[in-house]
Amino acid sequence: MLKLYHAPISPNSRRVWITLLEKKLEFELVEMNLDGEQFQADFLAISPFHHVPVLVDDGLNIVESLAILDYLEAKYPTPTMLPTDAKDLAIARMVQLVTVNELLPATTTFLPQFLGLPGGEPEEIEKALQKIAQVLKFFENLLDDRPYFASHNLTLAEVVAGTVVTLLPDVGVSLNEYPKLNTWCARLMARPSWQATEATPEAIKAFKSIIMARMAQKPPND
């Protein structure tokens, strides 16, 4: 049976979890607390970079969420979650990579606010807001009259971008200026897979405790 090592607070983990649910696959979910458990020898044996998610299938340990999604799509192609048309496939891939390379790094600036902790420097926040706005405008322009990016069906573009974009209102980034994207988000959040994988208040509280403990261990600036 498939086994997914994940952390409920991680968008990278959540995108794999959602894909497993959308493909209606049987799998075992192994929650990692990220409080040092990820550095233990038994986990390092399957994830040498001590990151989640990790998918274990038939003796193969797969790290990096995008690689895991490609593996699931290739091995378990029903339902199809990538377009076959060249233009549509390019759009789906662009959405995935722009999310990972541009949007997610900017969004992490607001992690303290998401956890109810003191925010970062105003200049860093403004720079992050500009980057997020650039990405959201790009995504808005990619959406057409179909309900999903380049498809009438949910794709891997949704599970990658959606697990980040749907969190933006929680850190004060409004989607009101992006009507197509706003509707797209509402459509995703109504899906059972989205609701089943949403981080609980308990998970957020536990992660906040870990982050605060790490911050307390850092030496003060000179």
UniProtKB/TrEMBL annotation:
InterPro entries found in the cross-reference section? Glutathione-S-Trfase_C-like, Glutathione-S-Trfase_C_sf, Glutathione_S-Trfase, Glutathione_S-Trfase_N, GST_C, Thioredoxin-like_sf
| A Pfam family per the record | GST_N_3
**PROSITE patterns found in the cross-reference section:** GST_CTER, GST_NTER
Family matches, as Gene3D superfamilies: 1.20.1050.10, Glutaredoxin
Annotated GST C-terminal domain residues = 85-207
The GST N-terminal domain covers which part of the protein? 1-80
Name of the protein this chain belongs to = Glutathione S-transferase family protein
Q: Which organism is it from?
A: Dendronalium phyllosphericum CENA369
